[in-house]
Specification:
Length: 508
């Protein structure tokens, strides 16, 4: 019996030329490594993203392309990131999966996390095609990281990593219809540094009109630098490379990345608010800059004035955001030690480690030293910014807030990033390439998590298994809580803890 011929490769005409993708076993189509901007070379490494040079003929888009050059960095973030994947110059690309080339499906544009320094859109967990299998065109984005994306340099635009993301959103607006997507129904989403990016881009004038919904996961705008903070980081980078700041653009890439890694490790291991400014809260030196041009003000301040992107938003966190991070804690940790470790982290908030630990001990008397450290760190970096941004945006636009995962004693529960493998889970997928933390062993939890995100992306009221999320009340604390037991409406257990930071003088 003669075997049926293989289906012809799917082909799409983009503005720059035709791309040929592939058919996936689950019935979706994939177009991988499609460029949205020109390659990043020594010539344009610190400049605005440039347009793609058109090509003749058919460009293969049937395999993942290179990722942004990087080296494993600081703590659990770097050790767990996708730094081992092949890097190269032509990494300003998107990976697209679609249910089909006809029609006008909703679109998900996803920004990966990794502390602005590591990770990629090529991570195995993002290759499941789960949203495409559910009728959504999914677009995962690679962008400039670390020094290439976020080091402030004389004569160069700030926030290049965010400007890359905006270039990708603009590319989607102009090209996604050819992949079966509706440019009027784009949800801009990401997790961790990807979620921070979404909140920051919501505040950037250049992004206005490029997406219809926003979904920051695990945090909002944390530790954004002021120009003086960015200038101190530039001086540190110049000293590490033994060059004046105006010569940093000439540094060979391998030396630049090595110096970037060392500065990341230094900031994570030895927080110093005097040295790192507000980035000390995050423990990551390369962060967006409130430069007054691309990013005119802090996203929270702009949201309070109704000046961020005028779009509905769903935002939320896991229940134990700092659980994985606590793997770096010493076994001897006591309350005094927790206060010392937290001191420089909370200084930018106008508090000392001793003050914040005393407040949390009074509010959480059952917590031990590690639990207090997890509570303070998780609230500082993830919970508090998400709560504040939800309240500010919710005064002007529809906002829904979720909480994901179970809770346990001493600030245990669902760790940072634990929801990703469930949200991107597809029945029948091979989970063996995934790290253990991203594998879903609970089909019910995966199903209800995916359904919640999917309903929002479709433009509906967020809901799962008959439970509809309440519209967020800026004066209240209602959330939809999704865990292994189901989905239910609840008061945000982290909302009241925001008051423990009263007296802090600055935003994060």
């Amino acid at each position: 019996m003669t075997a049926a011929p293989a289906p012809a490769r799917p082909v799409v005409e983009t503005e720059a030329g035709r791309v040929a993708g592939l058919h996936e076993p689950q019935g979706t189509l994939a177009f991988l490594g499609v460029p949205y901007a020109a390659p990043v070379t020594a010539r344009n490494r610190f400049q605005l993203p440039e347009p793609v040079t058109p090509w003749a003929g058919l460009r293969a888009a049937d395999r993942l392309g290179p990722i942004c050059p990087q080296l494993p960095t600081y703590g659990p973030v770097g050790r767990a990131a996708a730094s081992i994947l092949a890097a190269g110059e032509d990494f300003l690309t998107v990976n697209i999966r679609t249910p089909g080339l006809q029609g006008r499906a909703p679109v998900l544009v996803w920004i990966h996390g990794g502390g602005y320094a590591v990770g990629s859109a090529n991570e195995p967990v993002l290759q499941s095609g789960a949203f495409a299998a559910s009728g959504v065109v999914e677009v995962t984005v690679n962008y400039r990281l670390g020094a290439m994306g976020f080091l402030s340099l004389p004569g160069c635009p700030d926030n290049r990593g965010l400007l890359d993301q905006i270039a990708a959103l603009d590319w989607v607006q102009r090209n996604i219809a050819g992949f079966g997507g509706d440019p009027a129904r784009v949800t801009f989403a990401g997790r961790s540094a990807g979620g921070f990016s979404v909140a920051a881009v919501m505040a950037m004038p250049a992004a206005r009109g490029l997406f219809a919904r926003a979904m920051p996961q695990s945090g909002a705008s944390t530790g954004l630098n002021l120009p003086e903070d960015a200038a101190r980081l530039t001086r540190r980078m110049a000293a590490a490379l033994d060059l004046p700041a105006d010569r940093l653009q000439t540094v060979p890439l391998d030396r630049l990345i090595a110096a970037q890694r060392d500065l990341c490790n230094e900031s994570y291991d030895r927080h110093d608010a005097a040295r790192d400014g507000r980035a000390a809260m995050l423990g990551v030196p390369f962060v967006p800059v409130i430069d007054g041009v691309s990013l005119p003000d802090h996203p929270e301040a702009l949201a309070e004035r109704g000046a961020t992107a005028p779009v509905p938003m769903m935002i939320g966190c896991t229940t134990a955001e700092y659980l994985t991070h606590s793997g770096v804690l010493p076994a001897w940790l006591d309350m005094e030690g927790a206060a010392r470790l937290l001191d420089q982290r909370v200084r930018p908030m106008g508090l000392t480690g001793e003050e914040i630990v005393a407040r949390y001990r009074a509010a959480l008397p059952g917590h031990g030293p590690a639990g207090i450290w997890r509570a303070v760190g998780g609230d500082l970096v993830f919970q508090n910014p998400a709560i504040r941004f939800a309240r500010a945006q919710g005064r002007h636009r529809p906002v829904w807030k979720y909480l994901w995962g179970g809770t346990g004693p001493d600030e245990t529960g669902a760790a940072h990033g634990a929801e990703v493998g469930h949200v991107w889970f597809r029945p029948g997928m091979d989970q063996s390439p995934l790290p253990p933390r991203q594998r879903s062993a609970d089909a019910g939890l995966a199903r209800r998590s995916h359904a919640l995100w999917l309903s929002f992306i479709r433009g509906e009221e967020p809901a799962t298994e008959g439970c509809t999320a309440p519209r967020h009340d800026p004066e209240g604390a209602g959330v939809i809580h999704v865990d292994a037991g189901g989905a239910r409406l609840a008061r945000d257990p982290f909302g009241a803890r925001l008051d423990l930071w009263a007296g802090g003088a600055v935003r994060s």
